[in-house]
Fold this sequence. Notes:
Number of helices: 11
Order of helices and strands: HHHEHEEEEEEEEEEEHEHEHHHHH
Number of strands: 14
Strand content: 15-25%
Shape: globular
Helix content: 25-40%
Largest sheet: 7 strands, mixed
Strand order of the largest sheet: 3-2-7-6-5-4-13
Distance between the termini: 31 Å
Amino acid sequence: xxxxxxxxxxxxxxxxxxxxxxxxxxxxxxxxxxxxxxxxxxxxxxxxxxxxxxxxxxxxxxxxxxxxxxxxxxxxxxxxxxxxxxxxxxxxxxxxxxxxxxxxxxxxxxxxxxxxxxxxxxxxxxxxxxxxxxxxxxxxxxxxxxxxxxxxxxxxxxxxxxxxxxxxxxxxxxxxxxxxxxxxxxxxxxxxxxxxxxxxxxxxxxxxxxxxxxxxxxxxxxxxxxxxxxxxxxxxxxxxxxxxxxxxxxxxxxxxxxxxxxxxxxxxxxxxxxxxxxxxxxxxxxxxxxxxxxxxxxxxxxxxxxxxxxxxxxxxxxxxxxxxxxxxxxxxxxxxxxxxxxxxxxxxxxxxxxxxxx
Length: 358
C-alpha cells in the first residue's frame, strides 16, 4: 500500500489550473527548462461542435438527470479502483447501484458529504463523494450517457481547491500538488510541483526549496471546494442547481472532443504500469517513450517559428534530465515511465491548445 501511495504521489492520473495561478511568478521565469508555448487557435478543426438544443430555464439537462438517477439508486454505475501502478490482485470493479458499492475488502462506502467540481476542465462537472470508513473518495463522472466511478485514497486527494488542484502525500517527506485527468475508465495524476525528501521539482524538472516553499504557500492560500451533506435534500437543491447552471454554459455535452479521444487511446499505458508486469517496468517505459515521441512530432508539425523552437529547446533539456535519472541504478523504470507519461500528457495539451493544466 505504501508503494501505491508513493507511486500515485510521484505520478504525476490528480496539474494545476491554478497551477497557472500557483507559479505565475516562478514556473517559467525561475525555471528556464520549462516553456508554455501556445498554439494558434485550431479548435474548430479539432472539435466538431454540434449546436445544443434550446431548453427551458427550469429544465434539467440529461447529464444532471443521469447523476441524479445514480445517486438516487435508479440507475447503475461502473466503478473501478484501478489506478496507475496498481496490482491486479487488489483491483475491485463493480457494475450496479451505488447503495451496494463496496470495496475489495467488503467495506461499505458510507457517503457523508459531496462536492461538485470540474476536475479536468472539460466543462462537465464531476461529483466527489467522501466515503467514511473507506478512507477515501469516490469520483463520479459522466461519459457516454453513463456514470463512471473511481476511488482515490484520502492521502492522495487532500485539500481539494476550487480550481481542481489538490495535494497528494505518501508521508512527511513526500508531497506533491497537481490535478487529475481521465482516460478510459480510470485516471492519471499529473503533478505540478513535488517534494521528495531533499529533492524538489516542477513538472519533473529540478527547482530550489525556495521556489517549492513559495508555490506551496500559494497553493495553501487558494480557496477549497464547498462540501454538502450527502442527503436527498442536498442532492435535490445544491447538486441539481449547480450542475444544471454549469451545464447550461458549456457546449461539452454536444462536442466531439478530439483531445479526450486521444487521451482515451493512451489508457493501455495504465495496464502496462501494473505491478504485475514485473519489477523492471520496461514495457511501460518503452510504450510511454513511444507515445511521447509520437505526440512530440505531431506538435513539431503544428507549431510555427519561435513556438516550435521553444518546444525543441525545452524538450532537449527535459530529455537530458531524464537520461541523467536513467543513469542512476536506483531510479526504477516505473518512475521514468511515469515521467514520460506526464510529458506525453503535457504535449497532448499543447497540441490541442488546452490550458486548464498550465
